[in-house]
Amino acid sequence: MLKGQCLCGQVCYEYSGDLGAIALCHCGQCRRANGSAYSAVSPIKAAEFRFTSGREHIKEYESSPGKQRAFCAECGSPLYSRLDTKPEWLRLRIGTLTTPITAKPSYHIYADSAAEWYEFTDELPRYAERETGRY
């Protein structure tokens, strides 16, 4: 069981499934939503994710048609995103986990959109967009 929470602790969750491959997303939306060079995300099964407290503090924002970004309305911590066309999946923001994990990032997506001040220092695969077939 993996556990996580937002910055203020109002929203807590559990995830009973396995994490998917961790992507480091460099798209402009993720950079702005996280205030960082990229967002570390993993696809997870929505059916195995549940809020243990603070569900009422979750706000969703439609950042592009059919894409919802969920965050804590109290502290602003991004928790996951989801596509209306793929309701069975969420893209969990890995930084919200409180349970230690051994998984490491697998690849960069939207690498061509990386901030001009960011320097790639690893050997992970880089994709110009989201790799086809991955959520």
Describe the structure.
The protein is mainly beta. The protein has a single domain, classed as Metal Binding Protein, Guanine Nucleotide Exchange Factor, Chain A, CATH 2.170.150.70. Helices cover 5% and strands 39% of the residues. It has one helix and ten strands; from the N terminus they run E-E-E-H-E-E-E-E-E-E-E. A seven-stranded mixed sheet has the order 6-7-8-9-4-3-10. Strands 1-2-5 form a three-stranded antiparallel sheet, with no helix packed on it. A hairpin with a 5-residue loop joins strand 8 (78-83) and strand 9. The longest helix has 7 residues, at 28-34.
CATH class: Mainly Beta
Strand proportion, as a percent range, falls in: 35-45%
Compute the average pLDDT.
Answer: 94
Domains (count): 1
Question: What is the string of helix and strand elements?
Answer: EEEHEEEEEEE
How far is the first residue's CA from the last residue's CA? 22 Å
Tell me the CATH topology.
Metal Binding Protein, Guanine Nucleotide Exchange Factor, Chain A
Number of distinct helices? 1
Q: Show unreliable segments.
A: none
Class of secondary structure makeup: mainly beta
**Total strands:** 10
What's the Cα radius of gyration?
Answer: 14 Å
Classify the helix fraction into a percent range.
Answer: under 10%
In the CATH classification, which architecture applies? Beta Complex
Largest sheet: 7 strands, mixed
- Strands of the biggest beta sheet: in what spatial order? 6-7-8-9-4-3-10
Shape designation: globular
